[in-house]
Amino acid sequence: MTDRPGGRTVIDSPIGPLLLESNGRALTLIRFDGEFEPEDRLAPGAVPTDPVLAAAVAQLRDYFAGRLQVFDLPLEPAGSAFQREVWTALGEIGYGETISYGELALRTGRTTTASRAVGLANGANPIPVVIPCHRVIGANGTLVGYGGGLDRKRQLLGLEAEHAVTAQDRLL
């Protein structure tokens, strides 16, 4: 495992191995299995020495266990100003909530005619799961487009639906 500030690590998750990268200040990248060589797999229970990666690993583990609904990590996704604006809007979609690409366009101050450009920015999200691009669905309510594949998108939405209901039940 190469675990240095500004480094990378691979964790296991219910949606497959995830590569996490940090620049030492912020999380910069998450990649799905098949998009990287899993040479740096994190041992079960191990904690990276880089504080950003350590926090990301802990929060992702809590998210997948249904104990975390809002990530609190420093993020520095690389992209254009428009892409970063869309990714900021993605971060405002609530846990267990889904919206359409048209609604996402409206949330960025544009009309629904910008939904294609918003969809392209959504698809270029370098920090999936933490920046919840999986919460965007087609206008007719169908699951469309996800860089990690529709099976992963379905799993993430299912996990959130299950745990959102559980959290709400605890409040009653």
Question: What's the helix and strand layout?
Answer:
Elements: E1 8-11, E2 18-22, E3 27-32, H1 51-64, H2 81-90, E4 99-100, H3 101-107, H4 115-123, E5 136-137, H5 150-171
Parallel strand pairs: 4-5
Antiparallel strand pairs: 1-2, 2-3
Helix pairs in contact: 3-4
Detailed description of the structure:
This protein folds into 2 domains: 8-64, no CATH class; 81-171, Winged helix-like DNA-binding domain superfamily/Winged helix DNA-binding domain (Arc Repressor Mutant, subunit A). It is built from 5 helices and 5 strands; from the N terminus they run βββααβααβα. It has helices spanning 51-64, 81-90, 101-107, 115-123, 150-171; strands at residues 8-11, 18-22, 27-32, 99-100, 136-137. A hairpin with a 6-residue loop joins strand 1 (8-11) and strand 2 (18-22). The longest helix is centred in the C-terminal third of the chain and has 22 residues, at 150-171. The protein is globular, with a radius of gyration of 16 Å. The mean pLDDT is 88.
Unreliable residue stretches: none
Strand percentage lies at: 5-15%
CATH architecture of the largest domain: Orthogonal Bundle
What's the end-to-end separation, in Å? 45 Å
Largest sheet: 3 strands, antiparallel
Net shape: globular
The gyration radius over C-alpha positions equals: 16 Å
